[in-house]
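dumping this here so i dont lose it
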């Protein structure tokens, strides 16, 4: 597939806890060490694997639009389960419960 600079996705949230990650919730797919007391400070998103295939690669910065107070610049440092497509997950603190946005636009930042 050829790279794309912009795509519409569904966005959800996740927490750095076993059950929503793997047995090492303090590490992302890129082996980035998460501050478990305040994970949102890192501004990390996980992307579905189909997005990686079209150019949204690990450690790239993306602009997220249409996700309310989570809109802004985030860094891709994690990967979602293979069952998901056209989707991103925001890493947030466990105090935030729930969140889903449709038709969110993500764009690569050069």
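and the seq i came up w/
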């Amino acid at each position: 597939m050829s790279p794309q600079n912009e795509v519409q996705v569904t966005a959800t949230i996740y927490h750095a806890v076993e059950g929503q990650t793997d047995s090492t919730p303090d590490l992302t797919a890129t082996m980035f060490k998460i501050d478990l007391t305040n994970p949102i400070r890192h501004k990390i998103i996980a992307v579905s694997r189909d997005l990686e295939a079209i150019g949204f690669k690990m450690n790239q910065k993306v602009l997220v639009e249409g996700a309310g107070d989570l809109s802004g610049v985030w860094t891709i440092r994690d990967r979602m389960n293979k069952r998901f497509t056209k989707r991103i997950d925001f890493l947030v603190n466990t105090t935030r419960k729930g969140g889903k946005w449709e038709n969110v636009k993500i764009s690569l930042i050069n």
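Helices lie at 49-53.
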